[in-house]
């Protein structure tokens, strides 16, 4: 009897160890395939109201291994950020404004970014600011082979946008930022009492989809029958226009945008040997 129990016990343990090993390896593999990102936020040029949408967006690209925010925390102007730091485990970095007209926050953020770069622990950086002073930093990080995701307002200077691999306008992360309170800008609203009434601005009309641009990119990578792999299309569009985002034009994803232009494009789903489907798109040529 003891011998039988011993055999059953050993078999059960072997099965459990096999299962545990597979789960552990799957976790390790998953962690290795995800990018480790350093998130650096310029508090002077980013409203606290975007924090939820910001980290939801960053989660699409990888793991936010480091989260730091820079500013002068001795004054009331960053009150909105102070309320959300603990909830999102963001480390505040104090930087006094030593000289009027000089942005010490930018310098501190840039120095930290370079220090983090040389640890070689990160696959990419998320730079949250609408300030063009970070243009050279973004370029330098990319020169080292890292991926740079930029986050800023639509007013962000084009050089900074172009210096990033991908740029996301924060208006897309929190579309109700466009509110007014006695003439205050959205960034000023961070410090206002949330109990006070605010007046919502009229909905902004979404710009039309850049059909001609998408068609050109599609034609450039299409096969001999004119079909382009949708994933490759999205990658090439982002390379040429880092700030391109289907949400800017009222669509959740690229396939929805393509589908919403039936006069110009057609979509096709192709099955794979693995039982999944892959999307392809084709530009409808005039006269055909």
From TrEMBL:
<feature type="domain" description="HTH OST-type">
    <location>
        <begin position="206"/>
        <end position="283"/>
    </location>
</feature>
<dbReference type="Pfam" id="PF01936">
    <property type="entry name" value="NYN"/>
</dbReference>
<dbReference type="InterPro" id="IPR025605">
    <property type="entry name" value="OST-HTH/LOTUS_dom"/>
</dbReference>
<dbReference type="GO" id="GO:0004540">
    <property type="term" value="F:RNA nuclease activity"/>
</dbReference>
<protein>
    <recommendedName>
        <fullName>HTH OST-type domain-containing protein</fullName>
    </recommendedName>
</protein>
<dbReference type="InterPro" id="IPR021139">
    <property type="entry name" value="NYN"/>
</dbReference>
<dbReference type="InterPro" id="IPR041966">
    <property type="entry name" value="LOTUS-like"/>
</dbReference>
<feature type="signal peptide">
    <location>
        <begin position="1"/>
        <end position="26"/>
    </location>
</feature>
<dbReference type="Pfam" id="PF12872">
    <property type="entry name" value="OST-HTH"/>
</dbReference>
<keyword id="KW-0732">Signal</keyword>
């Amino acid at each position: 009897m003891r011998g039988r129990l011993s055999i059953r016990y050993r078999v059960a343990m072997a099965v459990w160890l096999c299962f545990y090993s597979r789960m552990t390896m799957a976790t390790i593999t998953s962690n290795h395939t995800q990018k480790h990102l350093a998130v650096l936020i310029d508090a002077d040029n980013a409203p606290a109201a975007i924090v939820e949408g910001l980290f939801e967006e960053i989660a699409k690209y990888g793991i936010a291994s480091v989260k730091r925010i820079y500013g002068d925390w001795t004054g009331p102007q960053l009150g909105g950020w102070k309320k959300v730091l603990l909830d999102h485990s963001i480390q505040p970095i104090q930087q006094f404004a030593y000289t009027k007209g000089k942005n010490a926050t930018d310098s501190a953020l840039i120095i930290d970014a370079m220090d983090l770069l040389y640890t070689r622990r990160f696959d990419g950086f998320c730079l949250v600011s609408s300030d063009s002073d970070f243009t050279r930093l973004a370029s330098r990080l990319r020169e080292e082979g890292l991926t740079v995701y930029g986050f800023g307002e639509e007013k962000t200077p084009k050089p900074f946008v172009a210096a990033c691999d991908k740029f996301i306008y924060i208006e897309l992360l929190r579309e109700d930022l466009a509110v007014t309170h006695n003439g205050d800008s959205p960034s000023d609203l961070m410090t206002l009492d949330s109990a006070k009434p605010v007046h919502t601005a009229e909905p902004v009309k979404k710009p039309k989809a850049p059909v001609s641009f998408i068609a050109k990119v599609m034609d450039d990578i299409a096969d001999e029958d004119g079909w382009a792999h949708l994933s490759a299309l999205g990658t090439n569009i982002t390379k040429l226009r880092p700030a391109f985002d289907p949400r800017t034009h009222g669509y959740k994803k690229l396939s929805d945008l393509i589908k919403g232009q039936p006069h110009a494009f057609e979509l096709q789903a192709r099955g794979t040997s693995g039982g999944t489907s892959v999307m392809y798109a084709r530009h409808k040529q005039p006269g055909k």
